[in-house]
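hiii so um. not sure if this is the right channel but i have a protein structure encoded as tokens and i wanna go backwards to a sequence. like what aa goes where. can anyone help
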């Protein structure tokens, strides 16, 4: 098994945290999916990371499919709840956290275009998704210790990765002041070795 990933992708980080939590040894092949000669398309026609290459050479994508697969191959630290309603709640947390990352990443990509090609309207629309998403994450978390209430799991991983990505790409966003309960959740997550070992590199 091999994970094709970039060290800055929040979706790849989610998978790397799950690998860590579940103590699954999996080599990482670092790629830059945006480069024209990236071979990611040989394994994922969408050209996106993360991609998990299985021992028979077949590939799994995207991150949501990969983390579900990983939970089936090792009983260590189950990250999905068994109960159906809790499972659906976990998937909703993940969908929202991933969606915020999608919107934030869209802004990063837009800002890399030539200034005259950038659309402020597009950037504003994406930033509104980020802000609305954060408001709903904070509302749904409330005073709870973990997203799903009962214990640490994929919902917390997805939300923690999302908050970390916002810090990485938009350090001036100041979401902590508006959402102190999300800040407290992030403080609970940050010392975990799975989070500490996968922080995006500062210079990329
Ligand atoms: N829904 C996908 C999103 C993956 C994604 O957007 N990856 C970005 C990096 S953060 C990428 O590889 N982009 C390259 C491209 O779109 O060409 C997942 O969860 O894996």
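sure thing!! here u go:
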């Amino acid at each position: 098994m091999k994970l094709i990933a970039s060290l800055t992708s929040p979706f790849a980080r989610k998978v790397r945290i799950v690998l860590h939590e579940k103590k699954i040894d999996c080599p990482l092949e670092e790629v830059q999916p945006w480069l024209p000669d990236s071979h990611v398309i040989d394994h994922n026609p969408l050209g996106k990371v993360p991609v998990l290459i299985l021992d028979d050479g077949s590939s799994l994508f995207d991150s949501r499919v990969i983390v579900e697969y990983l939970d089936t191959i090792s009983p260590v630290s189950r990250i999905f709840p068994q109960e159906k309603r809790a499972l659906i709640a976990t998937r909703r947390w993940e969908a929202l956290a991933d969606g915020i990352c999608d919107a934030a990443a869209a802004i990063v990509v837009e800002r890399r275009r030539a200034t005259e090609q950038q659309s402020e309207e597009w950037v504003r629309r994406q930033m509104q998704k980020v802000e609305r998403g954060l408001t709903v994450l904070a509302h749904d978390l409330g005073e709870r210790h973990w997203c799903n209430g009962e214990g640490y799991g994929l919902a917390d991983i997805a939300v923690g990765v999302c908050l970390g990505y916002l810090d990485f790409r938009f350090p001036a966003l100041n979401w902590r002041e508006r959402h102190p309960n999300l800040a407290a959740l992030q403080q609970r997550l940050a010392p975990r070795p799975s989070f500490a070992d996968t922080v995006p590199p500062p210079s990329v």
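oh and The chain is about 50% helix and 5% strand.
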